[in-house]
């Protein structure tokens, strides 16, 4: 488009659905851009900010006889509603809402609960929308996957999102969560990236507003909501994915450079790891090793001389049943800042042995080790009998 | 094989989980329903070939036929989520939207003389996963269009395709709603029968009122998922609604 179009004349609508009681797209023509069909560009403030050329399937365009209506940049946009088959009402939202509201209780809506729900929401008739949503749920095949998915992953999920947004006053973003049902209990599993404050907010939100979800639970009347922050199916593995991420996070924090602020790296490490452990429910047997790794890491990185750090790794190695960890006598010069590199490398190896489920190189990358250093770790840090920790004479704690 | 692939193939990637995504509109979906198949169509980019297009894991669209133009397709899309087993039928796997490339929408950082063929990946089901591993770290990061800040060392004076691609991922505002350029494109020449291959269909909400739609989708072994239709048909918001539904689906399937 050579020149932006500032004003255009309504010429018709594009019909996207093949049924009435749905919205269509108003199409415009402009002398500034002859031959093109245009649609409105609507900005964040809800007004027309420009026009855009549009391609559409032949046959989907319906010309309108009354094309006196024009729109210019800064105007409220036009909406088009197909109120009868082939009959369109075009106007601003406030006008369209009143037309649509009349249709909500009409006979034409019988058997169209999804449409009714959408239109009711558009008109702000949320009570009608909720009733329609339940009718929509009932209209889905009784034992098919769509019905259960719709109930849990659309209705319940959207409801929880709305409740949380309201509860948190928009100050916290809605966390990602998985939702499923077990024996009439609705379970919500928060994403591993959810911070403690958000998790707590979600818990109290659902506790206080649980009754609003009652109609969406299959065993009505008798349900509870539990929030878990780790995948229950992975419990037997001994090291949850959630825990692995926490461990990585703790390690990343642990490697932060010393700050001149009010917290030392050691305090930061301790805080991170204690937070990790404290945030967990009572540890099942499989997590003994995880706890030990956390404790060991805390010790290793908060005061031991590097040589002693190596010795500290031995229990980790024996507990994990991994191949031997032994110091190497590498004498080559290192292109990296040695203590930081050593810390990164050791952390990567500890995490590898801790069962993080990634190879050393990947862990190192996750920790933010430069790509070149990762190459060195991979090339020099591995031997047929296990991981070899390099040692260097210039190394200082 | 392409130089680009020579670099990518070295990645040691775990097996992928993301499904393939095919975007269409209600007009074409009517034909798809009638035949229960996705059928290759004449392609404007690979002239003389009939191709079927998918994107790896992302709900990306070929919304723009030309600059400053939108197709009605983008205003009411249908998003089909399909089994990744279709990867075994691929005739091309390219790390970006070849349509956008042909229209020079990614130049720069792409060099004018670079060909899309120079970026083709091997025809292997794990080819997208290797690329994802290398440039994004994992499939979650790829899905959210968050590339890695660094990739393994390459010679930036020799490996120009690698360099351009890396810059491409960081060059644009690769939000989930403007990710066409960097979504991995998968092309097949054979049609795809939907029963057994389709996992879910994300459709405009009012469309679910149409008698027989959900039953038919379920007869293919898939789940029908409605998305909210924006009355003003703002492309960005509609794509956002679909992206949210797909994200929820992948979370439910423990893929994200």
Report the count of strand segments of chain A: 14
What is the CA-atom radius of gyration of chain B, in angstroms?
A: 18 Å
What best-fitting shape of chain A do the alpha-carbon axes yield?
Answer: globular
| Share in β-strands of chain A | 15-25%
Quaternary organisation of the protein chains: heterodimer
Notes on the structure:
- The complex is a heterodimer of chains A (397) and B (256).
- With 397 residues, chain A is of the alpha+beta class.
- Helix content of chain A is 41%, strand content 18%.
- Chain A has helices at residues 93-103, 113-123, 126-139, 145-167, 196-209, 241-254, 265-278, 288-301, 306-320, 338-353, 360-366, 371-380; strands spanning 7-14, 22-29, 38-42, 48-55, 61-63, 70-72, 79-84, 87-91, 177-182, 185-190, 225-228, 326-327, 382-383, 386-389.
- In chain A, strand 13 (382-383) and strand 14 form a beta hairpin.
- In chain A, helix 2 packs antiparallel against helix 3 (126-139), helix 6 packs antiparallel against helix 7 and helix 11 runs antiparallel to helix 12 (371-380).
- Chain B is of the alpha+beta class.
- Helices cover 28% and strands 19% of the residues of chain B.
- Chain B is built from eight helices and eleven strands.
- Chain B has helices at 3-8, 26-35, 98-102, 127-135, 139-143, 160-171, 213-219, 235-252; strands at residues 20-25, 37-38, 41-42, 50-56, 69-71, 77-82, 90-94, 185-188, 192-193, 198-204, 223-227.
- In chain B, the strands form two sheets. In chain B, strands 1, 3, 4, 6, 7, 8, 10 and 11 form an eight-stranded mixed sheet that branches.
- Chain B is globular and about 60 Å long.
- Residues 63-67 of chain B have low confidence and may be disordered.
- Strand 4 (48-55) of chain A pairs parallel with strand 5 (69-71) of chain B.
